[in-house]
């Protein structure tokens, strides 16, 4: 029998892919999700149980943590729309902060010794060009409540591991993208570039808007570091293994490919992959978008022994395209 992992938010996009990869690696998994954004059909049928509950609810957590004896936890639950977080910050402080605090309390109460937390490049804000590619020690000045709550949770976890028998690893994902053949990205509303581009190619949208072309980048559009979700999932498994050994109690890693692509380059590659013209108009900037976010992930490679296996963006987009073609209405069908 493998170790038993509690995956909070395991019915969401990144969580469900992690669940699949954990099971493939030999772990046993219980998924805990309030299903506000999750999809039952995204959850691998081999999980021991899909528990519907809220991480902010002490009773829900106590019930699942009393029923099973977990070796570790992964925490994917969050609200994660940057623009919405600026408009309704208290929703983000409530769900993200309170959820993480209640979960940390429950893990310490029930003697679960390891947690992997979904952090984000948004904790770095708009980094000074001298800090790009962005390493772990780059100054952290979030420009929106979403990034601010994630940074506060990192700090909360650091102090909690200092005081309790708990180890934590915070993984700062850059732009998660791509899919497995049967598990993909279905957010409603969809705000991410690659699924929006592919919805145009599927005929679900007429065209897309490019949010600004006057940034200080090679073609004026924002540069991002797109990382395949399966590579992210493998970093989670490496983090679990690392914390089982003589690791520090608190760890942070930036996860990307170190290859920055502009919005226009993503659209152009998607035209090549799909064979569709994908009409796109340049519109105004979106509030809070930094010009360039590219990861320096050498620390994850050196310390965790993690490698990027699906690094080229064409294969990332191709995997997403295959999923979208098979699921034109997402999981709804
Ligand atoms: P998602 O919305 O698809 O998944 C989140 C899951 O958590 C959903 O299934 C939702 O129902 C569940 N959830 C939310 N609040 C909950 C609560 N209070 N109790 C129980 N379940 C709850 O999001 P995703 O894109 O898979 O992102 C997963 C994590 O990774 C998030 O924490 C996000 O902030 C972080 N992240 C995502 C990206 C990205 O590019 N998608 C980048 C950086 C960080
Ligand atoms: N974009 C467009 N048009 C669209 C959608 C997006 O031009 O219709 C642009 C955005 O302005 C941005 C780029 O495409 O420049 C990528 O946007 P996404 O919304 O796909 O991703 P973000 O970079 O805004 O955010 C994602 C995650 C965050 C995480 C961040 C870290 O959603 O959680 O990556 O890089 F913090």
Structural features:
single chain, 333 residues, alpha/beta, 7-stranded parallel sheet, 4-stranded mixed sheet, 38% helix, 18% strand, globular, binds nicotinamide-adenine-dinucleotide, binds uridine-5'-diphosphate-4-deoxy-4-fluoro-alpha-D-galactose
Written account of the structure:
- There is one protein chain.
- With 333 residues, the chain is α/β, with parallel strands linked by helices.
- It has helices spanning 13-25, 58-67, 82-87, 89-109, 145-163, 193-201, 229-244, 263-274, 298-304, 313-326; strands at residues 4-8, 28-33, 49-52, 72-75, 114-120, 167-173, 175-177, 208-211, 223-228, 250-255, 260-262, 280-283, 292-293.
- It binds nicotinamide-adenine-dinucleotide and uridine-5'-diphosphate-4-deoxy-4-fluoro-alpha-D-galactose.
- Uridine-5'-diphosphate-4-deoxy-4-fluoro-alpha-D-galactose (UFG) binds next to helix 6 and strand 8.
- Belongs to the NAD(P)-dependent epimerase/dehydratase family.
- InterPro entries: NAD(P)-bd_dom, NAD(P)-bd_dom_sf, UDP_G4E.
- One of its GO terms (molecular function) is UDP-glucose 4-epimerase activity.
- Keywords: Carbohydrate metabolism, Isomerase, NAD.
């Amino acid at each position: 029998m493998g170790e038993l992992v509690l995956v909070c938010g395991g019915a969401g996009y990144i969580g469900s892919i992690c669940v699949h990869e954990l099971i493939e690696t030999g772990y046993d998994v219980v998924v805990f999700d309030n299903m506000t954004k999750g999809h039952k059909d995204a959850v691998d049928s081999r999980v021991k149980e899909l528990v519907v509950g809220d991480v902010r609810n002490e009773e829900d957590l106590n019930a699942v943590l009393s029923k099973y004896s977990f070796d570790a936890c992964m925490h994917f639950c969050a609200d994660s729309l940057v623009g919405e977080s600026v408009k309704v910050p208290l929703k983000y402080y409530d769900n993200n902060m309170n959820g993480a605090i209640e979960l940390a309390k429950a893990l310490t109460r029930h003697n679960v010794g390891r947690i992997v937390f979904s952090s984000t490049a948004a904790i770095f804000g708009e980094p000074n060009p001298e800090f790009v590619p962005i390493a772990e020690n780059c100054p952290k000045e979030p420009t929106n409540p979403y990034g601010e709550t994630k940074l506060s949770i990192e700090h909360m976890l650091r102090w909690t591991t200092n005081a309790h028998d708990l180890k934590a690893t915070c993984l700062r994902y850059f732009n998660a993208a791509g899919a497995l053949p049967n598990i993909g990205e279905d957010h409603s509303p969809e705000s991410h570039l690659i699924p929006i581009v592919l919805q145009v190619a599927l005929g679900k949208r007429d065209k897309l808007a490019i949010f600004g072309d006057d940034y200080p980048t090679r073609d004026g559009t924002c540069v991002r570091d797109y990382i395949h979700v399966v590579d992210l999932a493998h970093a989670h498994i490496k983090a679990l293994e690392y914390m089982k050994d003589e690791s520090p109690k608190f760890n942070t890693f930036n996860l990307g490919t170190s290859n920055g692509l502009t919005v226009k380059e993503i659209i152009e590659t998607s035209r090549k992959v799909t064979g569709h013209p994908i009409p796109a108009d340049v519109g105004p900037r979106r509030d809070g978008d930094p010009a360039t976010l590219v990861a320096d992930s050498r620390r994850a490679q050196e310390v965790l022994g993690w490698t990027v296996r699906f690094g080229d963006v064409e294969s990332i987009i191709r995997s997403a395209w295959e999923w979208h073609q098979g699921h034109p209405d997402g999981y709804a069908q």
